[in-house]
Automatic annotation (TrEMBL):
Pfam families: dCMP_cyt_deam_1. InterPro entries: CMP_dCMP_dom, Cytidine_deaminase-like. Residues 3-120 form the CMP/dCMP-type deaminase domain. It comes from Sphaerisporangium melleum. GO terms for molecular function: catalytic activity. This is tRNA-specific adenosine deaminase.
Amino acid sequence: MTHQDEELLRRAIELAARARAGGNPPFGSLLAGPDGAILAEEHNTSITDRDITAHPELKLARWAARELDPATAAATTMYTSCQPCGMCAGAIARSGLGRVVYALSGEQLDTLKPPGSAFTDAPAEGPALFDEARVPVEGYYL
């Protein structure tokens, strides 16, 4: 962890405080280029936007996929106040960002929450109907 990493993480923590002050969950993130210049910043707006996907990491991954070419995206670093959740981690991977640096781990975050407040997985069944489901997919990834 470099001094610059720590400074940019502090900025992500400031963005988390801004989110909380605005009535949202306390999470903030930014995207920095290879030189450390901040390219974009976001904070959680899931309450005020009434959008459960309005996490800062997801918003930045979308921005990067839309606005950056693949080589530039791969040279960026996302700094975030907390380890990205599964939804955000998937978006970050698909957007091609080069690196993620976070302050709190998911386990550390859980110690700061009241007991019983963790999300649980929805019941799932499958796989099923392979022969039918594969028809629209076959050949797509060639």
